[in-house]
Amino acid sequence: MKLRKHLVILALFTALLVTAAGAAGAAEVLRMATTTSTDNTGLLDYLAPMFLEEKGIELQWVSVGTGKALEYGRNGDVDILLVHAPAVEKQFVADGWGVNRRQVMFNDFIIVGPSEDAAGIKELPVADAMKKIALAAAPFASRADKSGTHVAELALWKTAGIPEPDKEQWYIQTGQGMLETLMIADERKGYALTDRGTFIKYQDSRGDQSGLDIIVEGDDSLKNQYSVIAVNPAKWENIKYDLALEYIDWMVSPSAQKAIAEFKLLGKQLFFPNAGQ
After folding, report:
1. Is 138 left (phi over 0), alpha (psi -120 to 50) or beta?
2. Degrees (nearest 5) of the Cα angle 109, 250, 35?
């Protein structure tokens, strides 16, 4: 099964390489695995043409949860990662799979839910809010996919004294991306943890049909850090390490950091550059 998945992702990038060759002429192609939030919000569609223009490198990416992105890195299916689960990323580097990890930007996680807020968690500290959701047995939609958001969510449940929410009937394991999980929370009049950028995208796409509001925000524990990591070329001969370094250097450069700060949706800034911190 692992071999089959490995071949599938290689086939995907082979198709992308053929497409890129036709579209970009002699441009070299950098393969990246990234989180759904950077793709869903349109950030990468916004940044990739700038990278191509400045460096002459075509960026092609697959959008998955952070856990799956790291797996692609371990399998040598991609050259670079853009992910948002710091503890897991650091272990990935410590285990020798990644090198040159650099933080590039952040936003924050928020708890969203129905405007009527049946669990009564509005503006509570995060741990108290999670406890009240559990006590009320209010529907909670989880990505349950080992993504960066899922990893952060599980840490919040643990801090709240609820280490195994997946054993509860009110806990909905979607196994899907963030936009799909928000849709399910909306349909079930439930709660969810999401990054703010994807929620703004959800509001933009759903308009007046969205029944979700921001219920809890602003807690220090809700910071959502994004970093780039090159896959270790010592592990796989096919890794385009030189291109990965070009991308890392570009993402932390003043021009890219300025572009990240200027990216907005519904007049709201989605990501905040912090490469120098």
Report:
1. beta
2. 30
Average pLDDT over residues 128-142: 98
pLDDT value at residue 70: 97
**What is the CA 224 to chain-centroid distance, rounded?**
9
CATH topology of domain 2-106+225-273: D-Maltodextrin-Binding Protein; domain 2 (3.40.190)
Q: Does domain 108-222 fall into CATH 3.40.190.10?
A: yes
CA distance readout (Å), 122 to 125, 129, 210: 9, 8, 18
Q: Where are the domains of the chain?
A: 2-106+225-273, 108-222
Q: What pTM, to 2 d.p., does this model score?
A: 0.87
Residue 217 neighbours by CB under 8 Å, 6+ apart:
108, 110, 111, 196
Q: Whose CA is closest to 79, among 222, 265, 243, 220?
A: 243
Please tell me the number of Cα atoms within 13 Å of 131 on its side-chain side.
8
Neighbours of 182 (CB within 10 A): 26
Q: pLDDT by residue (tens digit) across 73-95?
A: 999 999 999 999 999 999 999 99
Give me the long-range contacts of 12-19 (CB less than 8 A, separation at least 24). 12/62, 13/60, 13/62, 13/77, 13/78, 16/60, 17/60
